[in-house]
Specification:
The protein has 107 residues and is α+β, with helices and mostly antiparallel strands. It has 3 helices and 3 strands. Strands 1-3-2 form a 3-stranded antiparallel β-sheet.
Length: 107
């Protein structure tokens, strides 16, 4: 005990403030815009850059694409409308490609 101050209690209190300060710095880094490892900016790619998804149709605009996507979903086919370098594309999984083409040509 130095000068009436409990050194153990002071060290524990100081350690708590240090932990809170480190946590604040970590959270500031994690949630800052443009610097986070977790959040990456969206990028537009080529039609081949979408992994297991294959292009089933190239609509003229996003409104037409959304209508066709909803038509496929009503038929039970999972579909995604995305923007590519060549314009909007309606994408489905490879296993659903033939079914999706048949559904879209049925009109």
């Amino acid at each position: 005990m130095l000068g009436g101050i409990n050194n153990g209690l002071f060290a524990k209190s100081f350690a708590g403030f240090l932990i809170v300060a480190l946590l604040a710095l970590f959270l500031r880094w994690a949630f800052s815009h443009g610097n986070s490892i977790i959040e990456r900016p969206k990028r537009v790619g080529k039609t081949e850059d979408y992994g297991l998804l294959r292009s089933v149709h190239s609509p003229k605009n996003h409104i037409e694409g959304e209508m066709l996507r909803q038509k496929l979903q009503a038929a039970g086919v999972k579909a995604t409308l995305t923007q590519t370098l060549s314009g909007p594309e309606l994408m489905v999984f490879s296993k659903d490609l033939k079914i999706a083409k048949a559904i879209l040509q049925s009109d």
